[in-house]
Design a protein that fits this description.
Bound molecules: glyoxylic acid, manganese (II) ion
CATH superfamily of the largest domain: Zn peptidases
CATH architecture of the largest domain: 3-Layer(aba) Sandwich
CATH topology of the largest domain: Aminopeptidase
Shape: elongated
Helix content: 25-40%
Structural class: alpha+beta
Largest sheet: 9 strands, mixed
Number of strands: 16
Distance between the termini: 34 Å
Number of domains: 2
Low-confidence stretches: 1-20
Oligomer: single chain
Order of helices and strands: HHHHEEEHEHHEHEEEHEEEEHEEHEHEH
């Protein structure tokens, strides 16, 4: 019976000769499961395309915190959650939350069943790829959809989270959505302004959220089983090893800083070169110093990703420059030392050029280890679906890092082409999405057996 699946044409339909071959060895129920997963994986890919069309910029994908594009994204993803049998709500900061009830809440130990959290973020960087964040939300919805279609309820409830801000593009303070749920959001951040002078509080209000109610949006730790996030790897280890997926061991910390160089603007024709206090020249020297420093320190990455020179005229000496510095290392002490050295270096450059330097750390997170028990379980489940498994550290930041303050977290990385991310070239194979769905389903079933 199994052999009948070796049909030309079906391969193209469900993705991958390697996988079709595998069907021959599976018991019939597993074949049905694999085919249904292939169907769900295709749905995820179609939804990735649809969500990738929702942008605040006409020719590229950009979806920032509390933007009209985020409103449309939440509405669309909310409709998919409803179709998968979930009750949908938005919390005070605009996180989208789909709730799939437990089998029999009354039989649970505490007032209501425990909750397993799944998800990732729905915001993007500027000129983004379609998979960063979105994949994790859509894979989670696909798994719940399958439970719903099969009329299965688990001993615990599932909440699928579409976080409102992970990238920190608009306010440079990242993990806003997950920090609210974890109860670590700093209300001082509500005063930060974006490039247009809109405070975070105003942005949340205009999105329909409630800045005054953020503290009460925190989830109750005692109700939670944990948080699992599926995400593209954003690196090339899985590709090199020819693996579809891999469990994550830890998420590196990061520091994001704004640096302001204040010199003196003046006439580009009349101020002699030796009398200038050119803020852009000081900043340029600093940008190269950042690169140099990171190149010479093993494991350190440092990036100046944004820079603005004022007043911004070809015939005016730049009097002010504002730039961002993003510093990462898996070891927190090494990262802190690197930041201190870069700050001293910026000050030295400023002193030599009579340019004032202001150093303002906007966001700082520690490295976070994924939960040993959940991650080991995930790793064992990965082995059921590919010949070997590996644990991967994450250099990039993820909502799981903020959620770890609240509940045990685990992450599953999915191979992405060439490791390309934060770029429109992000690409993921449908066959790997199928594996991610299968692993997450196994994860749900295994937890259900433990929790029953
Ligand atoms: C999130 O994408 C990050 O900047 O690590
Ligand atoms: Mn990202
Ligand atoms: Mn991401």
């Amino acid at each position: 019976m199994c052999r009948c699946w070796y049909r030309p044409g079906l391969t193209a339909l469900i993705g991958g000769v390697e996988w079709i071959g595998k069907l021959a060895w599976l018991p019939p129920q597993d074949i049905v499961d694999e085919l249904m997963n292939a169907d769900l994986a295709r749905t995820v890919m179609e939804r990735i395309e649809a969500l990738g069309q929702i942008s605040e910029e006409p020719d590229r994908l950009t979806r920032t915190f509390c933007s009209p594009a985020m409103r449309r994204a939440n509405d669309l993803v909310g409709s998919w959650m409803r179709a998968a049998g979930m009750d949908v709500r938005e919390d005070a900061i605009g996180n989208l939350i789909g709730h799939y009830p437990a089998a029999n809440p009354k039989s649970a130990r505490e007032p209501g069943a425990k909750v397993l959290l799944l998800g990732s973020h729905l915001d993007t960087v500027r000129n983004a790829g379609k998979f960063d964040g979105a994949l994790g939300v859509l894979v989670a919805i696909a798994c719940v959809q399958r439970l719903f279609q099969n009329q299965i309820r688990l001993p615990f409830a599932i909440e699928v989270l579409g976080f409102a801000d992970e990238e920190g593009v608009r306010y440079h303070s990242t993990y806003l959505g997950s920090k609210v749920l974890a109860g670590t959001f700093d209300p001082e951040d509500l005063k930060i302004t974006d490039a247009e002078g809109v405070t975070m509080a105003q942005a949340i209000r205009s999105f329909g959220g409630h800045p005054g109610a953020l503290a009460s949006a925190k989830l109750e730790r005692r109700h939670l089983l944990g948080y699992l996030e599926v995400h593209i790897e954003q690196g090339s280890v899985l590709e090199e090893k020819k693996f579809s997926v891999g469990a994550v061991s830890a998420i590196a910390g990061q520091t994001r800083t704004r640096v302001r160089f204040l010199g003196r603007a003046g006439h580009a024709a009349t101020v002699p070169m030796n009398r200038r206090r050119d803020a852009l020249c000081a900043a340029a020297q600093f940008v190269l110093a950042v690169e140099n420093h990171a190149r010479r320190s093993a494991g350190l990455v440092a990036t100046v990703g944004e820079i603005a020179a004022l007043p911004g005229s070809s015939n005016v000496i730049p009097g002010e420059v504002n730039l961002s510095v993003d510093v990462r290392h898996s070891d927190d002490a090494t990262r802190a030392a690197a930041c201190a050295r870069l700050r001293d270096h910026a000050k030295d450059i400023g002193k030599a050029r009579s340019v004032d330097v202001k150093w303002h750390v906007i966001h700082k997170t520690r490295s976070v280890a994924c939960d040993r028990g959940l991650s080991e379980m995930l790793n064992q489940l990965v082995k059921r679906h590919q010949r070997e498994s590996i644990f991967l550290p994450s250099g990039a930041g993820h909502d799981a890092a903020a959620m770890a303050a609240l509940t045990p977290v685990a992450m599953l990385f999915v191979r992405c082409k060439g490791g390309i991310s934060h770029h429109p070239g992000e690409s993921v194979r449908v066959g790997d999405v199928r594996v991610a769905i299968a692993v997450m389903e196994d994860f749900l079933q295994t937890l259900a057996r433990c929790d029953a």
